[in-house]
Structure to design on (536 residues):
């Protein structure tokens, strides 16, 4: 039986944040994730690094948490962020009385705001509605969830932390009301894994209630589905929010060359209920037109949905569970010894992606105290990514186009040296396999050989392969020869291809109109006619 002091269940932002924090304190920890890192909610959101202004009126605790973590993450994870800034826009349809409440709420939470003139706003964001009444600037930013999660995982590993992907925790092992380990299954080869530990941290998000149910514990986690739309161009240069109580379709978030519009809110029965509906898409388009009147003339490349894990205390107002936006976005740390009489088990639920580091710190403090470890939290001070030597940066700029070099360095950090060595010896490997996201053949080849990579989708999450405007039409089949080199690790290539393309089409099907419909017909022709892939 494998032994660690701590087992963490869940490989989203909070889970890997906990792994990093514990590892930096010298506590031996293993993280188990049923899929790839960041395959759940941590990659299925609008990618907004909140300033806290969205919650300034209704949820002041979350507002304070967000602005504090916003400042910290801009210091320690700048390579994972884009400091776009954000606007809150007051429209004629919005309650004028809410504006003053919002200004007071921002002042209470210490969120810096600045009102800008309508003339300046129109000049900087020409597509924005000309009917807006007031515009306020806030320190919102955008964040790449994939990069941030993997940066935490790599940092944890440098400190001795360990993680295993595609390992599903089947049950917690309980002896005399004390957790002594977990039983997990390797979903790739079917092998069973038994891990002995002193503490289990349940950071499995929307799956948190399922994990503790294996020992008969009940945990109230609301699954709040949010649907979003991705457009094929950067419609706004900064985050644009409606200045009214948080609602559907009131945030535009620019990422690289695309824009995300979100989100909806619907309580669902399980984390697996994450399919966007046509009704949700129509609602988002109609609401988005309030801020961007020409929205229907722009191409939507996909719809996607994530499930927010919200925690609701028993003391909440009855019926509030029917509306996810009524539940606070702050987080709860649940000591199951206090609540259920089970020692060595803690659950962390709720919260925001923006506050993942703070959540991890609170959990690590609890674990450290239990284990008698007195090392303080250091995650707010140490940069997530190691410094890239200037020699590597210069070599990247010499061998690759400037934009491609910078993107690769952000994704790989010092690991880029191995990719550059391959390109140096064979310049053909410097060609772009994915032009949309500027991913070279050498980078995909390197990631395909990593022990953490089991599917083409794993490469997508680490490089954004197939996430650009072509949605995998061209780069997917180009990647197949590289997968063939790792044929001992992968399923049959046709099955792998079907799995990847169907996952892309899952988000494309609900938005098949206009230019996107024509693009999809081209993709279908490539895979059904040229590559003889059945449409099943």
């Amino acid at each position: 039986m494998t032994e660690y002091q701590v087992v963490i269940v869940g490989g989203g932002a909070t889970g890997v944040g906990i792994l990093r924090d514990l590892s930096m304190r010298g506590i031996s920890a293993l993280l188990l994730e049923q899929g790839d890192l960041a395959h759940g909610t941590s990659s299925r959101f609008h990618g907004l690094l909140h300033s806290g202004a969205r919650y300034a009126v209704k949820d002041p605790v979350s507002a304070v948490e967000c602005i504090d973590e916003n400042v910290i993450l801009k210091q320690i994870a700048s390579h994972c962020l884009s400091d776009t800034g954000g606007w809150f826009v007051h429209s004629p349809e919005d309650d004028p009385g809410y504006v003053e409440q919002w200004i007071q709420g921002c002042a209470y939470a210490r969120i810096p705001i600045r009102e800008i003139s309508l003339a300046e706003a129109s000049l900087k964001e020409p597509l924005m509605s000309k009917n807006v009444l007031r515009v306020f600037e806030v320190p919102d930013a955008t964040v790449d969830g994939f990069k941030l999660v993997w940066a935490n995982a790599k940092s944890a590993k440098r400190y001795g932390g360990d993680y295993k992907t595609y390992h599903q925790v089947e049950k917690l092992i309980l002896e005399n009301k004390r957790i002594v380990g977990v039983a997990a299954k390797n979903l790739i080869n079917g092998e069973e894994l038994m891990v002995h530990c002193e503490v289990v941290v349940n950071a499995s998000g929307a799956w948190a209630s399922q994990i503790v149910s294996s020992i008969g514990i009940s945990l109230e986690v609301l699954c709040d589905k949010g649907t979003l739309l991705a457009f094929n161009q950067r419609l706004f240069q900064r985050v644009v929010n409606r200045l009214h109580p948080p609602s559907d379709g009131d945030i535009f978030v620019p990422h690289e060359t695309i824009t995300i519009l979100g989100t909806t809110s619907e309580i669902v029965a399980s984390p697996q209920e994450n399919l966007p509906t046509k009704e949700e898409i129509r609602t988002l388009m109609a609401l988005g037109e309030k801020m961007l009147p020409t929205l229907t003339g722009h191409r939507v490349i996909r719809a996607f949905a994530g499930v927010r894990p919200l925690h609701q205390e028993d003391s909440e107002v009855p019926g509030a569970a029917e509306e996810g936006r009524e539940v606070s976005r702050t987080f709860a740390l649940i000591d199951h010894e206090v609540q259920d009489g089970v020692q060595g088990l803690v659950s962390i639920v709720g919260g925001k992606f923006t506050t993942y580091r703070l959540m991890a710190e609170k959990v690590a403090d609890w674990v450290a105290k239990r284990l008698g470890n007195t090392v303080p939290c250091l995650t707010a001070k140490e940069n997530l990514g190691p410094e890239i030597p200037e020699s590597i940066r210069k070599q990247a700029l010499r061998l690759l186009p400037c934009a491609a070099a910078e993107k690769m360095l952000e994704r790989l950090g010092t690991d880029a040296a191995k990719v550059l060595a391959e390109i140096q010896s064979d310049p053909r490997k410097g060609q772009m396999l994915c032009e949309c996201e500027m991913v070279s053949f050498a980078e995909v080849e390197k990631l395909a050989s990593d022990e953490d990579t089991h599917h083409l989708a794993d490469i997508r999450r680490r490089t954004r392969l197939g996430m650009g405007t072509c949605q995998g039409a061209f780069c997917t089949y180009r990647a197949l020869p590289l997968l063939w080199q790792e044929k001992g690790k992968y399923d049959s290539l046709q099955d792998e291809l079907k799995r990847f393309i169907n996952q892309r089409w899952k988000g494309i099907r609900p938005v098949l109109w206009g230019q996107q419909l024509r693009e999809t017909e081209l993709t279908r022709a490539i895979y059904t006619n040229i590559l003889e892939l059945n449409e099943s």
Observations:
- The CA atoms of residues 35 and 166 lie 4 Å apart.
- Confidence is low (pLDDT under 50) at residues 314-322.
- The chain is about 35% helix and 20% strand.
